[in-house]
Amino acid sequence: MSGPREVVLLGKGDLAIRIGEWFLASPDYTVVAVVPSMPAPKWTASLPTWAADRGLPVVASGRVEDLPQLADPTWRPGLAFSVFYSRIIKAPFIARCRRILNLHNGPLPRYRGVSPINWALKNGEQSHGVTIHEITPGIDDGPIVAQVSFSIYPEIDEVIDVYHRCLDFGWELFRQTMPRLDAIRPRPQDDALALYYSKQQNDQLGERRDFRRRS
Fold first, then answer.
1. Per-position pLDDT tens, the chain of length 215
2. Which residues, in sequence order, are bridge partners of residue 78?
3. In 149-180, which positions are buried (b, 16+ CB within 10 angstroms) versus exposed (e)?
4. Which of 18, 70, 83, 108 has the fewest CB atoms within 10 Å distance of its CB?
5. pTM of the model
6. Taking the CA atoms of the chain, what radius of gyration do you get in angstroms?
7. 193 inside domain
8. In a domain, 152, yes or no
9. Are 113 and 204 part of one and the same domain?
10. In a domain, 51, yes or no
């Protein structure tokens, strides 16, 4: 590799910021743009504010299609990394990236789509996970780069509890995976084991729709 890889960071919240700090500290990467989920949620730290404070270019619309670098047809970022980014990334941008990865709050191929923690607790699962996978034009169906699983306790856990556990395990998974990234051979997901939920199904979550159950 000649020189640091250009990185586009997408997403929101505390873990995206922590991962952004890792990229800034690494001699192997340079962050050339931040594409935040917009509007930035108020219940977690603001990725666009962090990026602005760090002097990093921010795509204010939150749309990857608005990256100014895309005006150059020869531009291909070395890595795009998504951390809870709220938009579906379409094929033209995927094709531009030499590598494009997503950190997903679920044990893929189970719990593809939205609200994976909420659904896992509603379904009474005893374990959950975090997955780093390649982004494809499908939804959360790209080959798996790395994955970690951990216990959850539907009888006592709230969604917010498992969410914070995902942040901790997700950070450790990222930190341990990145130094080995080029040597890892991603493994295809087994679609026969897939479980997917869409945003339109959120009304079925009942008391598990929010961070905490209503007493």
1. 468 999 999 999 999 999 999 999 999 999 999 999 999 999 999 999 999 999 999 999 999 999 999 999 999 999 999 999 999 999 999 999 999 999 999 999 999 999 999 999 999 999 999 999 999 999 999 999 999 999 999 999 999 999 999 999 999 999 999 999 999 999 999 999 999 999 999 999 999 998 899 75
2. none
3. eeebeeeebbbebbbebbbebbbebbeebbee
4. 70
5. 0.95
6. 17
7. yes
8. yes
9. yes
10. yes
Q: How many domains does the chain have?
A: 2
Token representation of residue 24: 């800034």
* Two tokens, residue 78: 């070395």
Quote the domain boundaries for residue 161: 105-129+145-208
**Is omega for the bond preceding 73 within 30 degrees of 0, making it cis?**
no
- For the record, the structure tokens of 160 come out as 């917010």
Separation in Å, CA 47 to CA 21, 51, 131, 132: 11, 6, 21, 20
Structural tokens at position 121: 């607790």
Answer yes or no: do 83 and 118 share one domain.
no
Based on the fold, state whether residues 72 and 109 are members of the same structural domain: no
